[in-house]
Design a protein that fits this description.
mainly alpha; extended; DUF6589 domain-containing protein; DUF6589
Length: about 190
């Protein structure tokens, strides 16, 4: 009898962890979808839950920054300032409904492109030339580079257009949980 109780307790801990993982992933999937769709209201709603999650799991730096952000949104900022700040979070350079990206990620990608052009041109390029000529056109240069690669069937190691299927990931998790018998609710009653 004691052995069955241990198995049941271990199973319950595993099932609890599974449910917590699924809950957390739903929040992250919602955040990702809200970002891609450019829906600031949905992002704001998810941020409150994620703030608590970061505080609870010991990620204090992220948690504290999100706490400051939540305080600013809810209490500190005027409606005009809140609107201005939240509208600066995302950028859509593609014009597609699902083409939104975080502004900081866009900036990091731009910096990487600029560095790669600078490295290819060499250190003889002045920062003034880089700032005034290259930086303004870096995304155009990137598109031209991709077009040349595709037109001439040149191989490159880009994953830029590779989209991971969340449905496939969910099915993999469900299959693994079924294999481990975590989805057998009768075992919870032991």
């Amino acid at each position: 009898m004691a052995s069955a109780a241990k198995v049941s307790k271990r199973y319950w801990v595993g099932a609890t962890n599974m449910f917590l993982f699924i809950r957390d992933m739903v929040l992250y999937l919602e955040l990702r979808a809200a970002i891609k769709g450019g829906d600031i209201g949905r992002i704001e709603e998810v941020l409150y839950s994620i703030t608590i999650m970061f505080q609870a799991n010991g990620r204090k730096n992220y948690g504290n920054e999100l706490l400051k952000l939540a305080y600013g949104i809810r209490c500190l900022w005027s409606p005009e300032l809140k609107k201005a700040i939240m509208r600066s979070w995302l950028i859509n350079t593609s014009g597609r409904d699902d083409g939104w990206v975080p502004a900081d990620m866009f900036q990091e990608h731009s910096n990487l492109l600029i560095k790669s052009v600078h490295a290819a041109k060499g250190s003889n390029m002045s920062w003034e030339y880089l700032a005034h000529s290259i930086s303004r056109n870096i995304h155009l240069f990137s598109k031209v580079d991709s077009k040349i690669d595709s037109e001439f069937n040149l191989s490159f190691n880009s994953q830029a257009d590779f989209e991971v299927s969340k449905e496939g990931d969910i099915q993999t998790v469900i299959s693994e949980l079924q294999h481990l018998a975590f989805l057998n609710m009768n075992r919870l009653m032991v």
